[in-house]
Amino acid sequence: MAVDELEDFYVHTAIVRTSKGVNSQGVTMYTESEPFPCFFVDGSKLIRDSQGQRIIGSSTITCNNQYAPLFKPGSQVLRVEADRTCTVKGSVVLVNVADSGDLELPDHTTVSLV
Question: Which among 85, 97, 94, 86 is positioned nearest to 114, based on CA atoms?
């Protein structure tokens, strides 16, 4: 596996929670990823979702490309705090994977949350 040139910047930890469906009692069931290193940036900005609609994003998460498959539209992203509690940061609306190929630039995934 290649060296991740951005790993020093991944000072936060996240978990992705994805819906598995609804059980017979009408309760939504979730599956959670293992915690992984990342970098959160809070702040509102105007973004376009996967359908091209302009919406206000509330947070952005950046991580290694190996975690890109975890981010499905509508999945929740939780920030793992120092005391091991989790805070919901938002729902996935847009996933951008930066893969530089032969240019050898730092590859990463950036996810916009609402």
Answer: 94
Number of Cβ within 10 Å of residue 90's Cβ equals: 21
Contacts of 100 (CB under 8 A, 6+ apart): 106, 107
Q: C-alpha dihedral over 85, 97, 42, 56, to 10 degrees? A: -120
| Amino acid code (one letter) for 80 | V
Q: What is the pLDDT of residues 51-104, one digit of tens each?
A: 888 888 889 999 999 999 999 988 999 999 999 999 999 999 999 999 888 888
DSSP annotation of 18: E
> DSSP 3-state assignment of 56?
strand
d(C-alpha 41, C-alpha 86), whole Å: 16
